[in-house]
């Protein structure tokens, strides 16, 4: 019977157990893929809903659930090993003890009934255990969730910490890259820069103070104001310095607080990590409850051995997962350790920065102290300087005050002076008017006196001029030959030759003398008139003009130019330029103007002939240069005449210009070494003026204007052949002229006029009763000094000739 009941129980248990195994296997498969907690719970609930009355099933489910619960607990290898050593703790031992208890009961008289009761008791216990297991399972799930959430939170905290550290690092990096320093360093640098600017402004202030001390003569008020402003500036600088120091201390406090907070956070995090570790350890220490459950389940049935193996397998899977979790925990711990190290490094860095900041702060404080000292020194120096300056200004001010006190009497006297001056100024216009009137009167008196005196002087001058003219005329009448000397200026074309320095000097204060430097000696010559080298044609003609007038008045006149070749004879007699003509043109112009003036009383006839004496006598006005001869006029007057000579009556000055141009064209000229256009002949312009007056009758006068040929020496002119013959003829005629002059000078009874055609033709002009002017042309050049001396000697001889008083030729 007992065996029968046991068999029934076994069958009953096996049938129900199969279902439990299937469900457990399904749960294990689900556990291997899904989360164990929720699946077990789901399985449990299904069982609850669908199979609650079947207690056998419930005990199996309890066992499986206890096994599944053990996967969340930390069941280790230690449990497996302990199962063989400690039989009480293994399912096999439980099964054996259960068997022993069954055999004991088998010996008792209650039999199957007790067994059934115990079975029901066991079922109750199982359900109880199952409830406990479910509870534990839910607790374990909850703890697992908590652990997960804590790990997540911890992970988040670590992430936060990391991100915070990264942020700090980034900020640090940014600050370093931006300014090369941390915030504090940046502030320190800013402060250093501000200190620099303060130093500079202090230096500027010192400079200003020095300038101030270097300027002693400014007004005291301005300096006081400047002093005040400087003091104010120094105070401002001090205040700003204090502000900077306060800012620095605030920053330091802030950085300290920040550091403290950071330390606090770190400490908290460490505490938190420690707490979490403790909790984890605690959770590990809760294994015995599960072991107990396992033992309890083992008692139920030997059939659970298989389940136990399966459960072990599952345990292995779970332990692997646990080891994975452990690995993960270790990794997390490693991460925590690293983050600890990192935070430790950061702390070190922060400490280093702190030390640096402290150092910089000390340096800054030192610098500020130095600046303070310097500032105080500067302020003291400025103050002492300004005090000295102020003292000196005060002294000046007192001195000025003294002077001001001394000023009023002077001011009073000045006021009185000013008042008197003012009254004088008021009366000044009256004084001024009266004075002007007086001055006007005096001036008018003086002017009238002056004009009176001027009139007298003018009268005297006129008388003097008249007397001079009279005397001159008397002299000319007595002497009747005047010698004028014209010095040719040194021209540009003469300057490029050697020996072209001027040796002839004239005296501007003495118009009748000139000096020639010859062989180192000065030789002076006295003549009637000496023209300066720069004398104009007009000036020369002014000396000739009276003679031309004399011609109209009834005197024979002869004007001839003498001198070496190229000395300016033709220039003086004939040509200058178109606007600057020579004596010939000017004389005729003057003649016609005089005739015009006298036309009311006199009627004049002017005839002109031109003769060239070139070996023979030639008519310059005939076309082919007719050869002529000089003869005595057969009218019995004894005057000379040239038969066949063309005589042209001229009515106007324009007419005579054409005649002169024709004569000039026909004159023979050749180039010599001395003159490019040397006149190789004596040219005579013979003007006959016949005036008729009813009262005094008719008067016929002659005016010979002679341009002699050059008096150069033959060797010097380089003449050969025909030119030599010319030169010889020229020299012969000039020699004859000299002889005539010599005879006249010596008052010889015989004057050799007929020795040459020249002297023969000039006989009328050079003879007694004529008026003659000789213009001696000389060169100033050193190369011509010999010729110049010869010409001047001749001129001086002529100067001593007296032709006797001139006589009018009135018929
Ligand atoms: N006073 C003067 N001012 C300027 N030039 C002068 C003067 N006198 C003479 N000459 C110049 O000197 C040169 C020679 O002068 P000019 O022909 O009159 O000499 P000359 O004595 O007549 O010579 P010759 O006997 O050979 O005919 C001319 O070119 C003339 O223009």
From TrEMBL:
One of its GO terms (molecular function) is microtubule binding. The keyword Repeat does not apply. Keywords: ATP-binding, Cell junction, Coiled coil, Cytoplasm, Cytoplasmic vesicle, Cytoskeleton, Membrane, Microtubule, Motor protein, Nucleotide-binding, Phosphoprotein. Residues 480-801 form the Kinesin motor domain. Residues 71-82 have a biased composition (Acidic residues). It comes from the Eukaryota. It is a peripheral membrane protein. Residues 126-178, 227-335 form a coiled coil. Its main location: other. ATP binds at residues 563-570. Pfam families: Kinesin. It is found in: Cell junction, Adherens junction; Cytoplasm, Cytoskeleton, Microtubule organizing center, Centrosome; Cytoplasmic vesicle membrane. One of its GO terms (biological process) is microtubule-based movement. The keyword Signal does not apply. InterPro entries: Kinesin-like_fam, Kinesin_motor_CS, Kinesin_motor_dom, Kinesin_motor_dom_sf, P-loop_NTPase. One of its GO terms (cellular component) is kinesin complex. Residues 26-85 are annotated as: Disordered. Belongs to the TRAFAC class myosin-kinesin ATPase superfamily. Kinesin family. Minus-end microtubule-dependent motor protein. Involved in apically targeted transport. Required for zonula adherens maintenance. This is Kinesin-like protein. It comes from Fundulus heteroclitus (Killifish).
């Amino acid at each position: 019977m007992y065996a029968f009941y046991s068999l029934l129980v076994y069958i009953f248990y096996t049938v129900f157990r199969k279902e439990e195994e299937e469900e457990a296997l399904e749960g294990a498969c689900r556990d291997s893929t899904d989360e164990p907690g929720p699946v077990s719970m789901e399985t449990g609930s299904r069982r609850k809903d669908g199979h609650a009355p079947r207690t056998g099933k419930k005990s199996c489910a309890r066992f499986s659930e206890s096994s599944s619960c053990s996967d969340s607990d930390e069941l280790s290898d230690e449990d497996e090993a302990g199962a063989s050593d400690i039989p009480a703790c293994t399912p096999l031992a439980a099964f054996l003890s259960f068997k022993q208890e069954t055999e004991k009961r088998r010996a008792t008289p209650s039999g199957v009934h007790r067994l059934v009761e115990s079975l029901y008791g066991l079922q109750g216990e199982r359900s109880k255990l199952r409830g406990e297991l479910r509870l534990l399972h839910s607790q374990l799930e909850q703890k697992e969730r908590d652990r997960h959430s804590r790990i997540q939170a911890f992970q988040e905290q670590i992430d936060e910490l990391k991100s915070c550290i990264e942020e700090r690092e980034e900020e640090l990096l940014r600050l370093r890259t931006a300014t090369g320093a941390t915030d504090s360093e940046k502030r320190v640098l800013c402060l250093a820069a501000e200190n620099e600017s303060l130093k500079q402004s202090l230096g500027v202030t010192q400079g200003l103070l020095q300038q101030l001390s270097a300027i002693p003569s400014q007004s005291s008020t301005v300096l006081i104001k400047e002093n005040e402003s400087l003091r104010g500036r120094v105070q401002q600088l001090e205040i700003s310095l204090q502000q900077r120091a306060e800012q620095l201390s605030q920053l330091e406090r802030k950085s300290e607080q920040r550091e403290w907070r950071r330390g606090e956070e770190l400490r908290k995090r460490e505490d938190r990590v420690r707490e979490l570790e403790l909790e984890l350890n605690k959770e590990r220490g809760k294994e015995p409850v599960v072991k107990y459950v396992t033992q309890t389940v083992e008692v139920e049935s030997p059939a659970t051995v298989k389940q136990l193996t399966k459960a072990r397998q599952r345990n292995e899977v779970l332990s692997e997962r646990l080891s994975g979790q452990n690995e993960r925990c270790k990794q997390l711990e490693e991460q925590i350790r690293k983050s600890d190290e990192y935070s430790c490094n950061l702390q070190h860095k922060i400490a280093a920065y702190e030390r640096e900041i402290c150092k910089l702060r000390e340096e800054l404080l030192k610098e500020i102290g130095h600046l303070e000292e310097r500032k105080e020194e500067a302020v003291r120096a400025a103050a002492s300087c300004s005090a000295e300056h102020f003292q000196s200004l005060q002294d000046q001010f007192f001195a000025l005050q003294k002077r001001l006190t001394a000023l009023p009497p002077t001011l009073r006297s000045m006021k009185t002076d000013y008042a008197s001056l003012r009254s004088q100024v008021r009366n000044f216009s009256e004084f001024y008017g009266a004075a002007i009137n007086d001055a006007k009167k005096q001036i008018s008196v003086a002017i009238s006196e002056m004009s009176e005196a001027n009139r007298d002087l003018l009268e005297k001058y006129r008388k003097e001029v008249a007397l001079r003219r009279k005397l001159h005329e008397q002299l000319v009448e007595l002497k009747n030959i005047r010698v004028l000397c014209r010095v040719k200026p040194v021209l540009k074309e003469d300057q490029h030759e050697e020996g072209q320095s001027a040796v002839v000097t004239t005296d501007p204060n003495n118009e009748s003398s000139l000096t020639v430097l010859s062989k180192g000696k000065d030789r002076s010559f006295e003549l009637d008139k000496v023209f300066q080298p720069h004398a104009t044609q007009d000036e020369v003609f002014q000396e000739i003009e009276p003679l031309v007038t004399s011609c109209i008045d009834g005197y024979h006149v002869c004007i001839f130019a003498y001198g070496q070749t190229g000395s300016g004879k033709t220039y003086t007699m004939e040509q200058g330029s178109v606007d600057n003509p020579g004596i010939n043109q000017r004389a005729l112009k003057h003649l016609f103007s005089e005739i015009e003036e006298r036309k009311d009383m006199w009627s004049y006839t002017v005839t002109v002939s031109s003769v060239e004496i070139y070996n023979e006598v030639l008519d310059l006005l005939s076309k082919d240069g007719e050869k002529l001869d000089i003869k005595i006029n057969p009218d019995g007057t004894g005057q000379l005449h040239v038969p066949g000579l063309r005589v042209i009556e001229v009515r106007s000055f324009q007419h005579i210009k054409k005649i002169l141009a024709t004569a000039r064209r026909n004159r023979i000229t050749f180039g010599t070494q001395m003159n490019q256009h040397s006149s190789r002949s004596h040219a005579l312009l013979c003007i006959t003026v016949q005036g008729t007056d009813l009262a005094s009758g008719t008067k016929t006068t002659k005016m010979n204007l002679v341009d002699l040929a050059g008096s150069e020496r033959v060797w010097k002119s380089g003449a050969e052949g025909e030119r030599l013959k010319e030169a010889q003829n020229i020299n012969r005629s000039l020699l004859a002229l000299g002889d005539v002059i010599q005879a006249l000078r010596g008052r010889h009874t015989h004057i050799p006029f007929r020795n040459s055609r020249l002297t023969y033709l000039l006989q009328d002009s050079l003879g007694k009763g004529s008026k003659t002017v000789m213009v001696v042309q000389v060169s100033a050049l050193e190369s011509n000094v010999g010729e110049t001396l010869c010409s001047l000697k001749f001129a001086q001889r002529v100067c001593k000739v007296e032709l006797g008083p001139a006589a009018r030729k009135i018929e």
